[in-house]
Amino acid sequence: MPKESLEDIKLEVKKLIIQTLNFKDVKPEEIIDNLSFFTGENTIKIDSIDALEIVLEVQRRFKVRINNQNLARVIINSVDSISEFVYTEHNKPENTSQ
Fold first, then answer.
1. CATH code at 84?
2. Rounded to an integer, what distance in angstroms lies between the CA atom of residue 55 and that of residue 67?
């Protein structure tokens, strides 16, 4: 099964955020990849409750784990940070030692 490209993941992340947080008047292409969701500079602005919802949905949709709260704050900062985390997790070499 081919791995998703970083660009595919970015689009999926934007759609996930719009759907999860019920942004009715925002299109994926309007969300700026490298700007924080928390500062008000991006098309959308989120708070800590929104971030928690995004963490849960990212974990469910992409089958990844974000186990550290401090790391979650870094990951759920922008489209780029979420997408790079997912891409890295999906492209890790399989762990063969248990």
1. 1.10.1200.10
2. 10
